[in-house]
Amino acid sequence: VLQRPVLLEGEGRWETTLRTRGVPVLRFEGKGACTAMVRNFHIEALDDSKECSGSSAIEMKFKGSSEGEPAIVGCTVKAAGRWGTCIHASGSAPQIIRSRFSASKWGIVLVDAAGRVEDNELIGLGENAIVLIGGSPWVHRNIIGDCGGAGILAAA
C-alpha cells in the first residue's frame, strides 16, 4: 500500500518482479500517494484459486479527488483471473506511460479520472484494452491489439 509520495524503482528494465496471488500487487490510497511513482517493474497478480476470480494488479483509490498525478512508468503488468485488471483507478489524474499490459481481462480502467495514458502497449487482453468512465484523460499513441472487446470503451 502506497500512502506517501514515494518513488519505487525496479532494477534495470523489468528485472525486478512484484507478484501476489489473489490480491492487488500495489494499492495507491490516501492524499500522500497522489504523487507516488512506480517505475521499471514487472508486476503480476496471479490467481490459482479454485474460483479464479482474480483482482487488479494495481489499484489507485482516489475517488472524489482531482489532486495529484500518481504514475506508472515503464512497467509490464499482468493480472490473471475472471476479473483480472491491470490497472483500476478512480479519481485523481494518473500518468500511465510507456508500459506493457497483457494476459488480463481488462487493461486499464479509469473511473472519473483525468491524467494521461500514453505510449503503452496493450496486447492479448480478454475484453477491452482501455475503459474510460467519466473523467477526461488524455489517451495518446497507444498500441492496442488482439483484444476480445473494443480497444477503447468510453462511457459518460
In short:
This protein has 156 residues and is mostly beta strands.
Which key features would you list for this structure?
156 residues; mainly beta; 6-stranded parallel β-sheet; globular
Strand content bin = over 45%
Specify the helix fraction band.
under 10%
Main β-sheet, spatial strand arrangement: 1-4-7-10-13-16
Radius of gyration: 14 Å
Strand tally is: 18
Mean pLDDT: 93
- How widely separated are the two ends? 30 Å
Count of helical stretches: 0
Main sheet summary: 6 strands, parallel
Molecular structure report:
- The radius of gyration is 14 Å and the shape is globular.
- The chain is mainly β and 156 residues long.
- The protein contains no helices and 18 strands.
- The protein starts with 6 loop residues before the first strand and ends with a strand.
Describe the secondary-structure layout.
Elements (H helix, E strand, L loop, with lengths): L6 E3 L7 E5 L4 E4 L7 E3 L2 E5 L9 E6 L9 E3 L2 E4 L5 E6 L4 E3 L2 E3 L3 E6 L4 E3 L2 E3 L6 E4 L4 E3 L2 E3 L6 E4 L1
Parallel strand pairs: 1-4, 2-5, 3-6, 4-7, 5-8, 6-9, 7-10, 8-11, 9-12, 10-13, 11-14, 12-15, 13-16, 14-17, 15-18
